[in-house]
Amino acid sequence: MQDEMINKGKRYLANTYNRYPMVITKGEGCWVWDMTGRRYLDFLAGIAVCNLGHVHKDVLEGLALQAGKLFHISNLFFIEPQIKAAEILVEHSFGDKVFFCNSGAEANEAAIKLARRYSWSKYGDRRYKIIAMENSFHGRTLATLSATGQTKFQEGFAPLLQGISYVPFNDIDAVRKSIDDETCAVIMEVIQAEGGVYVAGKEYMKALREITREKDVLLIVDEVQTGIGRTGKLFAYENFGIEPDIMSLAKALGNGFPVGAIIAKDAVMQAFVPGTHASTFGGNPLAAAAVVATLDTMISEGVLKNCQTVGKYLYNGLLSLKKKYPFIVEIRGMGLIWGIELSIDGNAVLKSFMDEGVIINCTKGNILRLLPPLIVKNEEVDLFLEVADRVFEKQMKKQ
Ligand SMILES: Cc1ncc(COP(=O)(O)O)c(C=O)c1O
User: Fold this and answer.
1) 163: helix, coil or strand?
2) Which residues have a Cβ under 8 Å from the Cβ of 18 and sit 6 or more positions away?
């Protein structure tokens, strides 16, 4: 039955993904089941989306209650759960105002538009340039693809958005040299996730914040993957002793319900006035109910603490594996986002994990990426580490 469904998928779906040959039909906490009834330990969480685990009861309840009242009404009206969601985000972040959209790319698109509009309203036409980081990932729309500092994603889509340049990540002199009178913003991830889990330096972030503030250049932090608890803080920027001017969110914001947002200081968000930006579905009642339930649970139920302690436990386990297997080059990350850089082909390793019933991801061909739900327990980490040991042992024998 599963094979039949996969063949149908190949027949009818656009060929945009290298899909694993599985149809996942059910999830609960850190576990998912495929169509054959096989159970998998999910150390990917829908690519950093289901941070509270699959089918979390509070999110389910929030969605069900809202679904019984109103699915959609449009932003021509005030929407009660949207206002509540914005209130929680503002009360727990640097920001004053929220704009809701539907995805990470849309959030970054809004951030780029807001930065240009802010600069335009203050300084006029010629201040439109955006500095992005090499090896970054910001999404697949044309503007966010232009801000993505990896040419492999851009191939065949030229001409891209004008006015974007790239500097090496973690190189403060490079940013300093690149900012000129026409620069309106710097866009970056504090942890380059898709790029291979590279963490920004704390001193670098502080210096970057100082330079950008001095020049009234907006600092856009893309927290689409790192936001909503992934690093053990609600937002990853909190680990670096800085505050951005604009932050983009999506992925885990609705714990699986599609929703995105940007948050900004009032002085910046004032550049958006009626008619300048909009989204039909953005923050609709269902999406917003998912956000409220997700954030309430994340904040009140010790999820962040769990992420910190279990994250350390996982890191220590990974370090032990690194000592044992010489092809593990480096372990990088924070909280519950970890990259295991290998000197061998990561895709073969990934397949072995899948065969053993553990879902992970491989980025850049040789970096295993772990993004388990933040409710993961030490026992589940033990299971993961046992499998990893077996998989790596097998690789050793092949070397
Ligand atoms: C840092 C970052 N920004 C933006 C995106 C794009 O998000 P979406 O796929 O929801 O458009 C991603 C997706 O992986 C991401 O990791």
Assistant:
1) coil
2) none
91/288 Cα distance (integer angstroms)? 16
Residue 230 to residue 47: CA distance in whole angstroms: 11
Rounded to whole angstroms, the Cα distance separating 104 from 225 reads 8
The single residue listed with the structure tokens 């910001």 is 138
Cβ contact 292:88 at 8 Å: yes
% of the chain surpassing 90 pLDDT = 98
Q: Whose CA is nearest to atom 3 of ligand 1?
A: 138
**Residue 14 Cα, ligand 1 centroid: separation in angstroms?**
19
**pLDDT tens, position by position, 128-168:** 999 999 999 999 999 999 999 999 999 999 999 999 999 99
Tokens of residue 333, six digits: 């990350």
Phi then psi for residue 167, to 5 deg, are -130, 155
C-alpha distance from residue 1 to each of 12, 17, 25, 39, 74 (Å):
17, 21, 12, 16, 40
Report residue 268 CA to chain centroid gap: 23
At 22, give phi and psi (nearest 5°).
-140, 150
- The closest-lying atom of ligand 1 relative to the alpha carbon of residue 144 is 4
Distance CA 22, CA 294 (A): 28
CB atoms within 10 A of CB 206: 14
Q: Cα separation of 373 and 29, whole Å?
A: 8
CB 314, CB 336: distance < 8 Å? yes
| DSSP classification of residue 177 | H
- Partners of 29 in the β-ladder: 54
**Complete edge-to-edge strand list for the sheet that includes strand 246-249:** 97-101, 260-264, 246-249, 218-222, 183-188, 129-133, 164-167
CB 43 within 8 A of CB 358: yes
Residue corresponding to tokens 């491989």: 362
User: In the structure encoding, which two tokens stand for residue 374, read together?
Assistant: 């933040």
Q: How far is the CA of 326 from the centre of ligand 1 (A)?
A: 32
pLDDT at 59 over 90: yes
Indicate whether residue 388 lines ligand 1 (CB < 6 A): no
Distance from residue 300's CA to the centre of ligand 1 (Å): 26
